[in-house]
Design a protein that fits this description.
Radius of gyration: 18 Å
Structural class: alpha/beta
Number of domains: 1
Number of strands: 13
Number of helices: 11
Largest sheet: 6 strands, parallel
Distance between the termini: 14 Å
Low-confidence stretches: none
CATH architecture: Alpha-Beta Barrel
Shape: globular
Strand order of the largest sheet: 7-8-9-10-11-12
Order of helices and strands: EEEEHHEHEEHEHEHEHEHEEHHH
Helix content: 40-55%
Strand content: 5-15%
CATH superfamily: Metal-dependent hydrolases
Amino acid sequence: MTTINSVLGSLDTVDLGFTLMHEHMIVSSAGISQNYAELLGAGFMERIVNGLIKAREGGVNTIVDATTIDLGRDVNLMAEVSRRSGVNIIAITGWWLDIPRMLTGVSADQLAQLFIREIREGIAGTGIKAAVLKSASDISGVTAGDESVLRAVARAHLETKVPIMLHSYAPGQVGRQQLAVLRDEGVDLRRVKVDHSNDTTDVEYLTWLLEQGCYLGLDRYPGNNVSPLARTKTMKALIDAGYENRLLPSHDWSFVWIVAEASPMPRQAEREKRNPYGYLYLKKEVFSQLRQMGVAEATLTRLCVDNPRQFFEGP
């Protein structure tokens, strides 16, 4: 028996069920939901709960909330919506891209100890513990700040054995740089998931990542720049190549964003027009496409039931 941390306590991996491995309850900035909740729009809690209930009724059992502190992580909110919806929610620790100036000079070892505390003792005095470590690099590659967080995540992983997810920039093959740092720190890459991998259709690059031993987070649906169908065709190519046991599809979706009068981000109504199914887009659209392409039901089950369990339990 293997247990992991959920926001409501220990969760046996056999009870994960259908799992989405990269989603968000809220996408904002640190402290927004606690201090400036009006920026999240009226009734934002009900929007999350209702979306989760629809997901549960559609067969989704567990969601990994990939929100770090700098993306607005609020574990009290996560616990409340999990309790009200009946969906298991798993919190993470680590850092995304917004590294504050005041953290300049904080060492990788210092950061690692913070992440370890959030795994072993809990987040912000709540007792709610993280179950995944996250680091991020984007279009600029692994910057100096990114590398410090990445090494901290690696060291926290070696201490706690908690698996790692990487926000990565697939079009620039940034995963090559990230995995090199993790390998240098002694991380078994079989405990690593390289996310946003379906932002490219470069099967050669994706196959290289898989050959290093890691999992691929195919978690941008419907996504931008690459069409949903092209993303699904890429997944099918990887399934046909024999990698179905290390693919983890998801959406990178959130029902709640900051409501800004002049935002460079798509407005919520526009996002929901593109994805009217929320956390059920995979089941409604992607799995239907895969069935039409000849993918067996057992493989679809593996993608979102067996593979998440395997990722958490480790080799």
